[in-house]
């Protein structure tokens, strides 16, 4: 297993390499970097193809997320950091795992095993891919990929929540709240525009600047003065639920969407 370690602290770099060798004797450290610039330069060399990348978040010349903006990162990534406030950002760039320092060997082993499973996945069927692409040429552009899960905040934990469980997401007192069909409420740090961009527009509609609703949560509609609509949420448990209102500027588009 060839690994690339991006870590600006020599001691932490050495400790990680030693622990990996103890847990996985086949480990070969293919390269190391201490900065965004040196990591990008190493990754852009064609001969450098690691199986797993260990990436500290805060490097000597910036945060590691800049690496993803400057070059393609194709190997599975395991983020390492002393801080827990980068978890959401880490998963947004599709890292396989997120380990807090000092790194627990058990957690490290689990993360590497997860990477190995990804590496050993069934090889790409080229014939099937060609057939799919040929079909796409006649059926128009492919639909963009939308999230099937969102990471929500629950106390000190991050919970992957299935999008099919989401009834609505709304803003109140400068905070964003996600409500499930079970009536559970979670906090979200992202803006509503950012969240809406990740959701399938066939299933979710941003009815106003402060609210997104799921199609399956729309019950009856009440006409209000000024051309607005109030939505009665359907199938949602719990009390003190919001009564979302469709902005006047979005009413026609919303009615066309809900009647599809």
Amino-to-carboxy terminus distance: 51 Å
**Percent strand:** 25-35%
Query: What is the average of the pLDDT values?
Result: 82
The oligomeric status of these chains comes to single chain
Widest sheet, order of strands: 2-1-3-6-7
Question: What would you report as the Rg, rounded to the nearest angstrom?
Answer: 23 Å
Low-confidence spans: 122-126, 136-143
Helix segment count? 8
Question: What is the overall shape?
Answer: elongated
| H-E order | EHEHEEEHEHEHHEEEEEHEEEEEH
Percent range of helical residues: 25-40%
- Biggest β-sheet, characterized? 5 strands, parallel
Describe this structure in words.
The protein is built from 8 helices and 17 strands. The chain has helices spanning 10-23, 36-43, 65-70, 87-92, 105-119, 126-139, 192-198, 251-258, and strands at residues 2-6, 28-33, 52-56, 58-59, 62-63, 77-81, 97-100, 149-154, 157-162, 166-172, 175-180, 185-188, 204-208, 211-214, 218-223, 229-233, 245-246.
What keywords describe this structure?
260 residues; alpha/beta; 5-stranded parallel beta sheet; 5-stranded antiparallel beta sheet; 8 helices; elongated
Short description:
With 260 residues, the chain is α/β, with parallel strands linked by helices.
């Amino acid at each position: 297993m060839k690994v690339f370690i991006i870590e600006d602290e020599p001691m932490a770099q050495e400790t990680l390499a030693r622990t990996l060798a103890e847990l996985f004797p086949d480990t070969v450290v293919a390269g190391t970097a201490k900065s965004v610039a040196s990591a990008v330069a190493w990754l852009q060399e064609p001969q450098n193809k690691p199986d797993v990348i260990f990436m500290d978040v805060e490097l000597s010349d910036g945060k590691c997320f800049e690496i993803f903006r400057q070059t393609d990162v194709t190997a599975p990534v395991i983020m390492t950091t002393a801080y827990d406030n980068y978890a959401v950002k880490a998963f947004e760039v599709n890292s396989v795992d997120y380990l807090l320092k000092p790194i627990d060997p058990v957690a490290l082993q689990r993360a590497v095993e997860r990477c190995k499973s990804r590496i050993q996945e069934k090889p790409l069927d080229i014939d099937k891919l060609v057939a799919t692409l040929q079909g796409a040429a006649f059926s128009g552009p492919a639909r963009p990929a939308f999230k099937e899960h969102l990471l929500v905040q629950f106390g000190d934990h991050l919970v992957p929540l299935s999008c099919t469980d989401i009834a609505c997401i709304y803003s109140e007192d400068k905070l964003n709240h996600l409500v499930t069909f079970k009536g559970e409420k979670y906090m979200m740090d992202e803006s509503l525009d950012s969240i809406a961009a990740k959701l399938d527009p066939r299933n979710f509609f941003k009815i106003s600047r402060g609210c997104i609703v799921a199609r399956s949560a729309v019950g009856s509609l009440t006409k209000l003065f000024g051309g607005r609509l109030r939505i009665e949420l359907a199938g949602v448990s719990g009390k003190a639920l919001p009564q979302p209102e469709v902005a006047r500027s979005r009413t026609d588009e919303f009615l066309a969407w809900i009647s599809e």
